[in-house]
Design brief:
By secondary structure, the chain is mainly alpha-helical. The chain is built from 4 helices and no strands. The protein is elongated.
Length: 126
């Protein structure tokens, strides 16, 4: 990851907690590179080689989970889109809206119940 991209990513990352159970053994930058390596190479977390210096797959996975809960990737997505748009690198004529990521409204009015026009069962005579 080059320094220019890291300069965009780093402000989105939450600070390391003061009361963490131990020292932070791997920098955020290396952890992010480990996460991207796992995704790019489509390998399991346990198969991330320690020789690459990104930390263990478990470390990268925990950091990914922490960042996901903090909303880092949603914020980073907006930042990168803004940067690309400012540079004129996006072709909005080819944009598509995907409704699968839009939350459904809760408390929407229930449909009105209509009276049935079908026949009813005869009452039991026994």
């Amino acid at each position: 990851m080059d320094d220019e991209l890291w300069a965009l990513v780093e402000p989105s990352l939450p600070p390391w907690p003061d009361r963490s159970p131990g020292p932070r053994p791997v920098s955020d930058r290396l952890c992010l590179q480990g996460i991207l390596s796992v995704f790019y190479n489509d390998i399991g977390w346990q198969l991330l080689p320690l020789e690459l210096g990104f930390g263990s797959g478990q470390t990268c996975w925990r950091r990914l989970e922490r960042w996901q809960e903090a909303g880092v990737f949603d914020q980073l997505h907006r930042v990168l889109l803004a940067e690309l748009n400012a540079a004129g690198e996006l072709d909005w004529s080819r944009a598509c809206v995907d409704g699968s990521h839009i939350r459904a409204k809760k408390g929407a009015p229930a449909p009105v119940r209509r009276r049935s026009t079908g026949g009813r069962r005869a009452a039991s005579t026994t």
